[in-house]
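Human: I wish I could look at a protein chain and see how it folds. This is the protein in question:
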Amino acid sequence: MSAVRLPAAAKIPARIARAMQELGPYAAIWLLLPGGSLIALGMWIMRNRGWTADQRRRIVVVVATLSAMLIFPVGA
């Protein structure tokens, strides 16, 4: 896959461009599929297993909190 070439005036720092390139497929899944946010999160966790193994407890708490917020919305 070839990289998109930008005009000199529109140069994006390499770090931001790399992050956008890595997160692009996850964003597409999140936007296009029903339940895509959970699917994209699961795919990202599977791809980054080394990092997630260290952060497993924190991830479980965050996912449980977000799920509870979806089930019991505060403003309702």
The mean pLDDT is 77. Helices lie at 14-32, 36-47, 49-54, 56-71. The two ends are 46 Å apart (CA to CA).
